[in-house]
Amino acid sequence: MAPAIGRDEVAKVARLARLRLSDEELDTFTEQLGQILDHAQDIAALDLSGVAATAHPFQLRNVVRPDEIRPSLDRDVVLSEAPDVSDHRFAVPRILDAP
Amino acid sequence: MTSAAATARAVREGSVSALSVVEEALARVGQRNDQLNVFLHVDRPGALAAARRVDEAVARGEDPGPLAGVPLALKDNLCQTGVPTTAGSKILAQWRPPYSATVVERVVAAGAIVIGKTNLDEFAMGSSTENSAFGPTRNPLDPTRVPGGSSGGSAAAVAAGMVPISLGSDTGGSIRQPAALCGVVGVKPTYGSVSRYGLIAFASSLDQIGPLATNVTDAALLLEVIAGHDPRDSTSLPEGSPALMAHLDDGVAGVRVARVRELIEGADDDVVAAVDAAAAALRDGGAIVDDVSIPELRLGLSAYYLIAPAEASSNLARYDGVRYGLRVSGDDVGAMYEATRSAGFGAEVKRRIMLGTYALSAGYYDAYYGQALKVRTEMIGAFRRAYARADVLLGATAPSVAFALGARAQTPLAMYLSDVFTIPTNLAGDAAVSIPFGVGEGGMPVGVQLLGPGRSEAGLLAAGRVLERARGDS
Question: N or C: fewer beta carbons within 10 Å in chain B?
Fold first, then answer.
């Protein structure tokens, strides 16, 4: 049986998932994901046309709360866990060029 | 070990101090934690201070609550302020959450004493607790074997007698399977019946927090405390906490029990024998026991291993090195994301993120994720038809007793098969419990599983009590 997923596809999925994989990891994941997807052929092959999809155990409608002002998490407490902070904000590497 | 119910009673009466109970628990943790790696963090000062507060409340004539002075362990994917919450991952190794989970607030308000945070498979992805970034937990009954997972630390903490009760989370069996492998009681409550606020998300349409305990009564006691509507969880059911303790001794007279072929097939002989013995015990208790086949359940494993990774790939996108947790720097933001996630996540988490990303990607969505969602519909329908003719379904919790460390670690699919009997309940959003019943290979405990529709916990626990009595203890 042909592998359900190729090495190039695994590499593409890794890029989409923001993961950098070593060559060894790519080989391992290609084999393992292939095995799992082979197993999943039992449902991929079913004819389920006309069956509705269930994304959640019960049918959720919009859940709303009263529009009341309530305290939120303390800014300093939240920022104390951030890897990098600048001027009371999360800091990241520059995204835009300086004006 | 003294039960949670008896401890709470003694503490409330003032005949035993919470402090002495907690000191004993901490001593038991100290004796075996190095060997078993059950706790990732032990909050000794916090536990002793909380115990003193309970004792002071008793001295003032106040009622400290139904779990007064009871030592309790938290799976380390449940947020608690003041102590680290790691989810078993390097990416959160140093993280201290800015808020506590609703279940943590509820057990503390009920007088329970949080002893510490227990080991788990990274982000609750696994069935053996070997996927923790902080080393595997060992089974207290045989340290060469795994405790199951992903709530392996919480199951082992109870099985080792460190604490009488603990909390875990169950996405595809992560409470029930380790409960079975460690010989304790585990409950996967109805989806939405226990708030998930403060539970680190894995697969949000499947995750549910629940209790582990040495006996059914203690599990019911803890579930009553943690269940009930929470406005902070938008998937929380509107109902309050169900009455469980009041129905514990209802028995099973006239209850229709169906032994499910698909929840036994492929299991080892010792496991099948335990399920047969449980069926006989329920029949002795007055239940009407039948055999049924629900072929749709065979599709659960594939559906689960597409749905759960798909949801996980989305939920774990938040670990990007920006707001909390690990950051590994890179030349630009994209490089930082990649470096952080590649260094912070372990192999199983990467595997599931990849699988989920693939199942959701253009060209494969309909064939995999979309198809899995339709299977979920079929499974819910199959359960509904089964529950029209039976009150309780009976099967095995796991296909085998606890296996050796390393035995399944290199073969993800073999590990995934550990969950084959527990997954269907999560897909349906229903309730199920695992009750230790019988002994299998190597003298290891076997768990049998009782399944019911949503909101059937009282009946399942009453049936569990019947099995407990038949087993000959209390």
Answer: C
Put simply, whether A27 touches B (Cβ < 8 Å) is no
Question: Where in chain A are the domains?
Answer: 7-44
The C-alpha atoms of residue B409 and residue B131 are separated, in whole angstroms, by 8
Instruction: Report the complex ipTM.
Output: 0.94
* Domain parsing of chain B, residue ranges: 4-243, 256-297+377-425+441-471, 303-366
B174 is catalytic: yes
pLDDT of B474 strictly over 50: no
CATH of domain B256-297+377-425+441-471: 3.40.190
Q: Which CATH architecture describes the domain B4-243?
A: Alpha-Beta Complex (3.90)
Tell me what pLDDT residue A64 has.
Answer: 86
Distance CA(B327)–CA(B446), nearest Å, equals: 43
Q: How far apart are CA B96 and CA B76, in angstroms?
A: 11
Q: Which residue of A has its CA nearest to B81?
A: A77
CB contact under 8 Å between B353 and A17, yes or no, is yes
End-to-end Cα spacing for chain A:
56
- Let me know if B374 is a catalytic residue: no
Average pLDDT over residues A4-23: 95
Query: Which of chain A's residues have a Cβ under 8 Å away from the Cβ of B375?
Result: 43, 46, 48
Q: Which residue has the tokens 């379904």?
A: B393
Fold of domain A7-44: Histone, subunit A (1.10.20)
- Average pLDDT for residues B22-43, to the nearest whole number? 98
A94 contact B CB<8A = yes
A50-89 residues touching B, CB cutoff 8 A:
51-58, 60, 63, 65, 73-74, 77-78, 81-84
Pick the catalytic residue: B17, B75, B100, B128? B75
Contact call for residues B86 and B325 (beta carbons, < 8 A):
no
Q: Which two tokens stand for residue B390?
A: 């039976």
Which of A21, A24, A27, A36 is the best residue to mutate to test the B interface, defined by the most B CB atoms within 10 Å of its own CB?
Answer: A36
0.90 exceeded by pTM: yes
**How many CB atoms sit inside 10 A of residue B205's CB?**
22
The C-alpha atoms of residue B108 and residue B69 are separated, in whole angstroms, by 10
